[in-house]
Amino acid sequence: MALSKRQRAKAFRGAQYALLVVILLALAFLADWGEIRRAFFNLDIAASMFPGVITTALWNTISYTALGFVFGLALGLVLALMKLSSVAPYRWIATVYIEFFRGVPALLVFIALSFGVPLAFGLQFDIYSTVMLALGIVGAAYMAETIRAGIQAVPKGQLEAARSLGMSQGRTLRTVVIPQAFRIILPPLTNELILLTKDSSLIYIIGLARDQYELTKFGRETLSRSPSLTPILVVGLCYLLITLPLGYLSRYLERRTGGKKVRTPDSTEV
């Protein structure tokens, strides 16, 4: 008797589940769990990383990310307004900046600020300024497009109503347009914060004192002194302590804003 389409689909799913169970059982019986524990779950090495991995590395990662995000958000807002300006040179400058820094790796910006700028101009930045500028410069290029798209997503009727009440263009922008735009773009801005958190690991190219280590640098230093990959696992879990709550926050904000999306010029929805 021939199976119906639904029955065939159900049988196919059952076969996939059975295959997955067989694979997991084979891995469970064939794996050398003692070697896996020594390679990835060495509790003595993990214990030696505390409390420094939290009080120093995790805290520095959060601090560096916050500095870069605040600077990038401020600069991104300026760039977004420049790109929407009726003054053509402003639009050209913003477009060149955005396209350039979206196209180059963040690592090159770190190298330029750490080594190129001191050699060329004699300017020497401290660690916090370097991270703030490097992360902010790159992050601003992405946030500018997000903010620009959010501003354009605000209904034109809101602008017309504000102007009909006698508000100036600047006041309309500050009190009506930008607050509504930020409500729309909060979810993608949260995603940008996650990306900056991971990009903060690029600070490893800068010479750091031990109390300035962020998570990746802390993990690399511990790994160099241990015969196990446990430090990498611990550091990865610490990153998840930051990124998972931010991911849930992004989805929550998206539900709160009704899932409204805006489209950027590269056809990505935010």
Characterise this structure:
It is a single chain. This protein has a single domain, classed as MetI-like fold (Orthogonal Bundle). By secondary structure, it is an all-alpha fold. The chain is built from 11 helices and no strands.
The total of beta strands comes to 0
* C-alpha Rg (nearest Å): 25 Å
Instruction: Show unreliable segments.
Output: 264-270
Summing up helix and strand content along with how strands pair, one would put the structural category as: mainly alpha
Describe the main β-sheet briefly.
none
Helix content: over 70%
Mean pLDDT: 89
The proportion of strand residues reads under 5%
CATH architecture: Orthogonal Bundle
User: What is the H/E order?
Assistant: HHHHHHHHHHH
Tally of distinct domains: 1
User: What's the CATH C level?
Assistant: Mainly Alpha
Q: Give the termini distance in whole angstroms.
A: 50 Å
Summed up, the helix count is: 11
CATH superfamily: MetI-like
**CATH topology, which one?**
MetI-like fold
Tell me the overall shape: flat
Q: How is this fold's topology laid out?
A:
Elements: H1 5-30, H2 33-40, H3 43-48, H4 52-83, H5 88-103, H6 106-121, H7 127-153, H8 156-164, H9 169-199, H10 215-224, H11 230-256
Helix pairs in contact: 4-5, 4-7, 4-9, 4-10, 4-11, 5-7, 6-7, 7-9, 8-9, 9-11, 10-11
Summarize the structure.
With 270 residues, this protein is an all-alpha fold.
Provide tags for this entry.
270 residues, mainly alpha, MetI-like fold, 11 helices, flat, cell membrane, MetI-like
